[in-house]
Amino acid sequence: MALRGEPTARQLRLATELRRLRDAAGITGREAAASLGVSSAQISQIEKALAGVSEKRLRAMAANYACSDGELIDALVTMATDRTHGWWEEYQERLPTPYLDLAELEYHASHRWDVDFLHIPGLLQTEDYARALFSYVNAEFPPSEVDLRVEHRMKRRVIIERPDPIPYEAVIHEAALRIRVGDRSGARAQLARIQALSEADHVVVRIIPFDLDAFAGAGSAMVYAGGAVPKLDTVVRDGPHGTAFVDAEAQLARFRALFRRLESVSLDPDRSRDFIHTLIKEL
């Protein structure tokens, strides 16, 4: 079987989890290979996401590693055997890989949390807002490149707009609501979309107002995607060197606690809707 040239973030996550199980068992790659009757190179390829793994072999690996977490094993089997051809694949070689990885992550997520301080979360953005944002940040791009990114972002909204949407919660700072990425009418339309979506049963929007005392969490922006089990959750953060996918268990626990802290100081959903309504009237 040919080796993969560029594994996806989902494939890499599966490989990482299998390596973590082996490390937790205190078993070397050579020992793991011997117990399965395969070569050390094959174990290495699986743990680098260069090669896939069958359900039978994955369950054998988990048994050899003394993993008794049945829900985790089942979730890993699903990742290993999934053959979904998602809409994002049409953007291969047209957009940077992180765009595709994020769309795939969202598609498989059990729930999604967003925290934003300067911009409206991508899933809540109107087309005009997204276009203004991409045009400003990438001023050197021709219109066709901007259109491609806007199109991709609008398609990502499917996870909260489809008939079986995932639970979604957004914590947004007042600054993001007040910054006019586009013109006044565009800002009004953007706020109206957030307010309308917040009425849905599966959507929760909370606002952090400027007049909140003792708030020092403005550097806590994140995308939190829930996995099939908590160990498979993922945090996505934008950094100076690009998009980072965080999956270490200790870090996930830290970001879960951080989200709950931000949630606790924000306005409740009803007061947040009233807050947005007031901003709309100001425009």
Automatic annotation (TrEMBL):
Location of the HTH cro/C1-type domain: 18-72
Q: Does the keyword DNA-binding apply?
A: yes
Source taxon at top rank = Bacteria
Query: What SUPFAM superfamilies does this protein map onto?
Result: lambda repressor-like DNA-binding domains (SSF47413)
Keyword Cell division tagged: no
Residue ranges spanning the membrane: these are none
The protein's UniProt keywords, in alphabetical order, are: DNA-binding
Any single GO molecular-function term of the entry would be: DNA binding
Q: Which InterPro entries match?
A: Cro/C1-type_HTH, DUF5753, Lambda_DNA-bd_dom_sf
Q: What is this protein called?
A: DNA-binding protein
The source organism is Streptomyces pseudovenezuelae
